[in-house]
Amino acid sequence: MYVEATSNARTTRSERSIVDHSLAPPCQAVCPLHMDIREYVDLLAQGRTMEALHVIRKDNPFPAICAHVCTHPCEEACRRGEVDKPIAIRALKRFAVEFGGDRMTQVEVKTEHGDKIAIIGSGPAGLACAHYLRRLGYPVTVFEAQSELGGMLRVGIPQYRLPREVLNTEVQRLTQMGVEIRTDTRVVSLDLLFDIGYKAVFVTIGAHQSLRMGIAGEDSPGVIDGATFLREVNLGLRPLLGERVGVVGGGNVAIDAARTAVRLGARRVTILYRRSRAEMPADPEEIQQAEEEGIEVLFLASPTGITRENGRLKVTCIKMELGEPDASGRRQPVPIKDSESTMEFDALITAIGQSPQTPEDFRLRIGKGSTIQVDPVTLTTNRPGVFAGGDAVTGPATVTEALATGRLAASRIDDYLQRRYPLVSDAEKESPLGPLWPETVELIKKLGRLEPPTLPPQARAEDFTPVELGYDWESATSEARRCLRCGMGAEILFQDKCASCLTCLRVCPYHLPYVDATGTIQIPADQCQACGICVAECPAKAIVLRKPHDRRHIAEELEHILRSAEEAKSKPFIVGFCCQYGLFGSGTLAGIWRGAKAGVWIVPVLCVAKVEPDHILRAFEAGAEGVFIAGCGEQCSRENTAYWVHQRVEKVRNTLEQIGLQRDRVQALAPGDSGNLGDELDSFTERIGALYLTSVLMEEVKS
Amino acid sequence: MIVAQEKPLDQIRRMIDRYPRVLIVGCGTCMTVCGAGGEREVSYLHEALRLAETRGGNGVHAFSEYTVKRQCDPEFIELLADRVSDVDAVLSLGCGIGVQAIAERFPELPVLPGVNTSFMGMAREQGVWDERCAACGDCRLEDTAGICPITRCTKGILNGPCAGTKNGKCEANKDMDCAWVLIYQRLETQGQLEKMRRYYPPRNFRTIPRPRRIVTRASIGAGGDHA
User: What is the DSSP letter of B90?
Assistant: First the structure.
């Protein structure tokens, strides 16, 4: 679709009048949990971390886990990526979890139903299902074959990616919610569960069985499969691998195994992958981090046989070339004749995929790849009251997908027990916003992505310390304000008021509004950057921002501040409209507060371009002696905002003058290079103080 | 479109001084487009007048506001009927036509002009308006290549340019293009320079009786073909 838009760059706007008005931002649309990413990123950009975490928690039962291991499809879909680089959404979520007071959150639940539910498996799907069922008020028991909860989260994902204390905290929350936990308990029969009174069962046993390569010598000592290897290490064993380790496969498990081998002391680790880098399913960041740690990736190589000689493995590899794309859309590797070579390893880890292993006594219908067959909408299996989900159904997938299935399963089990017809959620009916137009992309200010810091490679190989480090406050707000707030833009809400004056078309810094073929003015919702300039400039007041909160925001905040100022009876008082976004909002603004300037009352605004002349006059009318508007200046992520603030300040100044008030009672301020506007503000408050004194004296002289 | 400019605030304050209750009426057509009297300006003026009251020592007023779609149509003005019942004056941000239309509908009520109606023109760019038509009632744009010498020439002469043209600019305003040079250039582009050589007799303004009225409907009985 994007390619099409580019090649049609010369088509006129009116020809392109099909604007998608379903406004799901792409990040949210692709998120398996359908999280309101745009909203929490926006809150983070304002430094409102606790509220951001609250938004995150609404749709995600274990945000701390996702914050570490999510494969962030949202970032691939992010439209900022069309301008420069996507927003670092996962790192921002981690910031919210770390700084938003997550440890204080506790979900209060009451048991409201009598029907007990059993969950077999405590991986992300099982835990999420338990969480949501418990919130719905069901008694829930989780059965886990291993000694600790977490499933793949614990036995599959290495500690340097998901610290165990993070997992433990989230798991502990379930216990606090009253979920019954039975570890070291392998369920062998579903009938038994129904016999002892469970009314519904959720089977989420994961996919722990490694696939076999099907080559000679695969069972030799020294060859171990990835899932087993990671499980052993993660449960505390330290297998002796030797110095030279090979890993077969190109997925995340292969990368995890290779990086774990490095941490166990292997000197040289080589990944053998049968396709090329472009087809590698592992997360590119993971591959990069692996390479930083000295891991070598051999592409287009596939083992054909293994022999063991003198305690070492001789692995015969054949070179491959890429042929036609297969069903997955990736190009199929084809062996090149007579290209065999031999490599020597001390140990070989095979990680070419995993499949579920469902006990036969469950009597569940099994489909392709040993997965459990379910109805994708209801998650029901062939047995009444038995639901299934997670890797056991889909084959190896992501943590977030599993969490989403768990959440869905909870509501489906609830539907089943309450005898309701399972309805499709609205979220599934939305389609995401299309791409940005090339000319819009051109006009959006480029703001580099702040990558979260990582541990230097030499420090990583020593132990299992987390590799990725979190953002600090400054970096997080700076990163979050890069968000384009897709779909939150302006719309002509009152078409009957619109005089077709074209003001919006003329003031838009992104040149987005256009006159369509019927002569009607249109603001393309999928392109608008929500700067709010047209909203404030529309002479008919026909345009609003799509987010109801943004519409009322300034007027409400202003009235609130004016009431507070009145109650405080401080004289003289000054009202400042200050941008709440980014560094300015959380840094400079906080400085003003902390400086405790007497009588300075701050109205936080989401970009000063949204402050209208009326707001300024209103502040004066309520008794303010001076008004300043402090924007981010050069740091503003949008275009032309300072120009429009200047226009409005001049308009108000002319009015003040006609009323007999001094022009310089209103002023626009912007932080200089130092990012500080303390000095400017000081001189402004002094000036206003002097004006106030003069006016008081004049009054006394008169009387 | 009709273009107007807000009146200076002190002038408005003087006008409304004696009326305690004032309804500010905006116009949703030309005055909205030219930014002088749409809903936004109504609300700004409202705010400014209240500020003038609290900080500028004006008497105490009660203001209300309303914007009609078009002040020059009686049907739209009818929507004001309920709203004017408890006010002492209407401050209209419509053009001169709007002010008169409201005054005509509510003869007992003082209707005050909030804007200075300036000219008929078009937008040059955001916030910049240019006069284009004088409504002379005798359009000669065919002969002048679509450029009106009545409005765009300072002297409004029909046989230009005069001797005051210099480098394509007007002697009265060196930043302003000489309309007749523009006419010449465009006629040249169109290959119609012979129109420059013609003589246009002076217009007889005495033949235009004011106020003018245009009646487009046929009067019944005039043609003698009614049944």
Answer: E
